[in-house]
Amino acid sequence: MSLDVAPVGPSSFSAANDAQPSSRAQRPAAVVRQQVEVDVIPESPPREVLDAIDAASRAYQKLRAQGRELHFAQDADSGRLTIEVRDLDGKLLRMIPPSRLLDVATGGTLD
C-alpha cells in the first residue's frame, strides 16, 4: 500500500467581496489557538491509536492475502483523491471512490 497524497496546508483563498461585507453575511468566529506544552512524552501511543493501527494492519494483510493493494494519489488535473485497487505487480484492477474507502477500512469487501 502506498500513500502519494500532497500535503495540505493553509489556504490563501480570499473572496473578492471581503472588502465590503454584506449585512446578511456572518463572519466566522475568530479562531483562538492555545499553546500546548508537553513536558513528558508518553512511552506508547494511546490505546485508541494502537487499536486504529491494528485495524489498519488487519485490513492491509487481508488485501495482501487476496493479492491486492491500494494506491492513493492526487489527480493532477482535478486535484481530487484517487484510490486504485492494484494487483501485487502494480496492474490496475479498478478504481474506488473515496466514499467507499471507509467501508473497506472497516472490513468491507472491494467487490
Automatic annotation (TrEMBL):
<keyword id="KW-0282">Flagellum</keyword>
<keyword id="KW-0969">Cilium</keyword>
<feature type="region of interest" description="Disordered">
    <location>
        <begin position="1"/>
        <end position="28"/>
    </location>
</feature>
<feature type="compositionally biased region" description="Polar residues">
    <location>
        <begin position="11"/>
        <end position="25"/>
    </location>
</feature>
<protein>
    <submittedName>
        <fullName>Flagellin FlaG, putative</fullName>
    </submittedName>
</protein>
<keyword id="KW-0966">Cell projection</keyword>
<dbReference type="InterPro" id="IPR035924">
    <property type="entry name" value="FlaG-like_sf"/>
</dbReference>
